[in-house]
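Lab notes, practical 5.
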Amino acid sequence: MTSPAPRDAWQRLVDESDEALITQTPDWLDCICATDSYDDASRFYEFGGSGGLVVPLARRRGWPARLIAQDAWPSEWGIGAPVATEAPAPRHARAVFEDLARLPANRVSVRFGPNADPVWRSAVPSGFTTLPHTTYILDLGGGFGDVWGQFKGSVRTAVRKGEKAGVDVEVDRTGRLVPAFYALYQHSIARWAQQANEPLALARWRRNRIDPLRKFQTVAETFAESCAVWVASYEGRPVAAIMVLHHGPHAKYWRSGMVKELAHPIRATTLLHKLAIEDACAAGCRFYHFGDSAPDSSVSVFKERLGARGYPSFGYRREVLPLTAGDQLLRGAVKRLIGFQDE
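Output from the prediction step:
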């Protein structure tokens, strides 16, 4: 085992894998470390004649070793599953988890995507807690003509409505439109706060700690052509935006923002997704990743109308002191105090 993982070995594994996401690349870890208090704690494992595998990990900086977290990834940074060119042997998967269990950190967590080989689940030690998720993915294998047919009728109608309304759409892959995207993201934060009965100042403080402007600027600068910002304008005013990341056969919708009272009547966000999906098909992508959502929520219903399917995926966490549980209890108490409404 080598830590941090040698960049050339890690990048080689990424380049040789058709399943690796942009969030499993060493450049993604660089973005995390550049925009928050984390250091590279990735681990490279070699087993005899195997090609090796990398477990991406970010280590919280500035805390005592026994209180820190080592995560793949920290909150809101997506899936940081192990990267390998082939599924590990069961004994190798167990060895990886045993090594992670011995790390001198209070918490160690690893997140797997829906395509994770079952050997990983069978190798999880009893000391790790299983964290279930539902991840939504749209299959682009048949090309955009097939995908258009997968859209629900209401989505196709919404797209035509946006086109007839005269919505202007601009896509940028230089980072120039990131400030416009972020301004619309701030509008969404205000809307979410109102829906959840959360004080706006608290909502902005909380979300801006997780998603500061420099986070999106760093990702756009790092990935350049692979980071597309789509902005829809109506009557000269930006009303909706989405950010989509490309890597190999995978396109990943990452974040969005909108002025709902202006964007919703003209279905601007739906139109943006249609164009981004069409662009992904033209680029040869096989999958459009929508991320995690709670089943039957309004967000998951929106994704399903666009043809996405929900797949089970899992994270695993080992924690010595129950700091995560304590944090969740405290957050729950604050939510009850302010009357916070979860979706």
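Observations recorded by the TA: The radius of gyration is 21 Å. Residues 178-196 form the longest helix (19 residues).
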